[in-house]
Structure formats: structure tokens, C-alpha cells
Automatic annotation (TrEMBL):
This is Uncharacterized protein.
Length: 378
């Protein structure tokens, strides 16, 4: 009788899997989906087996569909969801599938939490990769656009190299602070009379391994090498914005994207459309003082592994990397050693102690509700 009462009270059993799936697909906020997974074991199993977390990620941010696989990097060997059991493994295929499904649930539930985080947006640019052309290189290099000022050593911060014809598109390409960023808006301050008429933005990843990608530096690169770095054949663009009109004035202008965009791979290209003619040499130029890519970084817990010449992207989840800086965690993650895991544990312990001290001084700190559901922070 008790068993019958329990079955009769299970919503999933009463309405059936098809209607249940239709209802679960209406959830448009991660908190609703993750709360449902906590109702009872059968509900969690239903969420896990139907990949609802991954599907919601892709619905909120279509760029997430580019991932070919997702891997949880832990103390043991990395577990890839939907992997096949080894012939020598004592586990059945059902056990492996269940563990893989649970891993995928953890990966994408943490990605969901990061996607809807209320952390403050900041300028995400880490490095300059290169510009399509530069006048007076390296004095007017793209690197000057990282500084919020009109001139560097009495020169325009950045100036294009000058074109013989109108209609040429000049570009500025930047590396963001992490592999995965949510970008809300891009800000550009053009310089004096050499304003672009329109701007457009592209986001994506480099096909080359990270260690082979180089950046602009005044000392060791010339303009020809700069052109090789930004060649379009080296990149895969997963998002292209519409064109935005530019006010013909020297002010920091904000271009808000139609929706937040998931930049997977950490590369943003700013396309400057419509150059201006200079009377002294009858050539066409564009000048830019400053540029910002405003959003939030999702590293170091979530990273991207790129292989097969950029055609295969793997989402990596590093639960032990909370509190670590992106570049440090990336270098250590490649080894996946006990030393890396111990370093991550110590870092998180120190962070907890600092939080406890703040609580004593400032009072209790509000914790995002999803932290309690998933556990930990991104």
C-alpha cells in the first residue's frame, strides 16, 4: 500500500514521460530546472537522462551547441560523458552510461549557474592579437587602444595604415581574459575626424593551439607578422553581430548586443567599416583611441580544449579549480597532477577563511541560491 501511494503521488508517473518532458522544457531559468532535480530521486534521474541542463544552456546561449563533448577533470582520469566502457573494465555499459550522464549534469549545471550569475560586468580584454594595418608601427599600435586616452606621445592611440580606396574594412582583434566569456556590449572611442561610419563584431576561437598563438609586442614583432596572426583562415567565428552606426564624434560609444553572447574561445574582432579620407595624401584612414569588451569571465572552473584545427571543441569542467586564476589553472590543468589538485584545495581553503573574516567584520554575505543547489562557486 505504501508503495502504491508513493507511485500514485509521483507526478512523472501520473502524466508520463512525454508530457513531463514537455513541461520540463518550458523551464527558462536554471534555478527552476535545478530545483526540480531536487524534488526526489526520480525527478533528478529524469533531468539527468534527458540532458535538460545541456539543452537549456543551448537554448539560452545558442553558441554552446558548438561543443562536441564535455569532460570533467578530477583526481582520477577525466570522465567524458557518453563514453564507452573499456573491454577490461568490470563495470557494465549501463554503469558507465549512468556515471557519464551524471558527469554531464554536473558540467552543464555549473555552466548554467555561471551563465546567469549576477557578478558585475568588466572589461574582459586581456591582450591585443593584431590589427589589419597600422600607420607608424609600432608607435600607433593596437596596444594603445587598451589605454583610456586620446593620444600616446602626441600621436593618435591607434591609426590604420591608410588605404588607396574607400570601402576597405579595418579590424582590431583581441584576446579575452578567459576561454569562455559572456559579452554584453562593446565600447569604442574613435579619434577626432577619422571616424568609422559603422562597426560590426565577431567572436570565436583560434584554430591554432594556444601555445602557438602570438600577440602584438612592440619589441619582437613587425607589421608583416601581425598580418599573419589575424588572418581569417586562422579563426572560426561563431557569432557575428549586425552593423551598428557610429556617432561622428570623439566619445566613448557603447554598442549593446541584441542579447548576451557566449564568446567560446576568447577572441573578439572589431570591424571598422567606412574609412575617412585624409586630404594631405588622399588616402583613407581610421583612428581609434580606446576599446573595451564588456562582460563576465567564466574561468577558471570552465575551459575550452580546441583540437583538429579548430573543428572540435571540448568543454572542460575543473571543480577543484575554484578560486584559481585562469592562466595559472590552465597551465596546471594540462598536467592533471596531484600537485595541481592540492594547490587548488589550499587556494579554496584560504578563500573560505577570507570569507569568514569578512562575515565577522561586515555581517553575513548573501549567497546566490544556485550555490546551495549545485554547490560551490564559479
Amino acid at each position: 500500500m505504501d508503495k502504491e501511494r508513493d507511485n500514485s503521488g509521483d507526478f512523472l508517473d501520473r502524466v508520463g514521460p512525454d508530457i513531463s518532458a514537455s513541461i520540463f522544457r518550458t523551464f527558462d531559468h536554471p534555478a527552476d530546472l535545478l530545483r526540480a532535480s531536487l524534488v526526489k530521486r526520480s525527478w533528478r534521474r529524469f533531468v539527468v537522462e534527458n540532458d535538460f541542463c545541456r539543452k537549456l544552456c543551448e537554448r539560452l546561449f545558442p553558441e554552446a551547441a558548438i561543443f562536441a563533448a564535455a569532460v570533467e577533470v578530477s583526481r582520477s582520469a577525466p570522465l567524458s560523458p557518453r563514453s564507452s566502457p573499456s573491454p577490461d573494465s568490470p563495470e557494465s555499459s549501463g554503469d558507465v552510461e549512468s556515471r557519464a550522464a551524471q558527469a554531464e549534469f554536473r558540467i552543464y549545471s555549473n555552466l548554467l549557474r555561471a551563465l546567469v550569475s549576477t557578478r558585475r560586468s568588466v572589461d574582459c580584454i586581456l591582450h591585443c592579437i593584431g590589427a589589419s594595418s597600422t600607420d607608424n608601427f609600432p608607435d600607433e599600435t593596437i596596444e594603445n587602444t587598451l589605454e583610456p586616452q586620446d593620444r600616446i606621445n602626441l600621436r593618435p592611440s591607434y591609426s590604420s595604415g591608410g588605404q588607396d580606396e574607400d570601402g576597405v574594412t579595418e579590424t582590431l582583434t583581441y584576446r579575452l581574459s578567459s576561454d569562455i566569456c559572456i559579452v554584453h556590449e562593446i565600447r569604442i572611442q574613435p579619434f577626432e575626424a577619422y571616424f568609422p561610419r559603422m562597426v560590426r563584431f565577431r567572436m570565436g576561437h583560434c584554430k591554432l593551439p594556444c601555445e602557438s598563438e602570438s600577440f602584438v609586442t612592440d619589441e619582437d614583432k613587425d607589421e608583416d607578422e601581425n598580418q599573419e596572426d589575424i588572418a581569417d583562415e586562422n579563426y572560426v567565428w561563431t557569432y557575428t553581430s549586425p552593423e551598428f552606426p557610429v556617432l561622428q564624434e570623439s566619445s566613448l560609444q557603447t554598442f549593446k548586443l541584441q542579447r548576451p553572447v557566449l564568446c567560446i574561445g576568447g577572441v573578439v574582432k572589431i570591424e571598422l567599416l567606412g574609412v575617412q579620407r585624409q586630404a594631405t595624401d588622399d588616402r583613407y584612414y581610421i583612428c581609434v583611441c580606446h576599446a573595451q569588451v564588456v562582460g563576465r569571465s567564466l574561468s577558471p572552473v570552465l575551459m575550452v580544449d580546441i583540437s583538429d584545427s579548430g573543428s572540435r571543441l571540448v568543454l572542460k569542467y575543473l571543480p577543484a579549480a575554484r578560486g584559481m586564476r585562469g592562466m595559472r589553472s590552465k597551465a596546471l590543468m594540462q598536467d592533471n597532477t596531484l600537485e595541481w589538485l592540492e594547490w587548488a584545495r589550499r587556494t579554496r581553503y584560504n578563500q573560505t577563511r577570507r570569507l569568514a573574516t569578512m562575515n565577522l567584520l561586515l555581517g553575513p554575505v548573501q549567497i546566490n541560491e544556485l550555490d546551495n543547489i549545485i554547490g560551490g562557486g564559479v
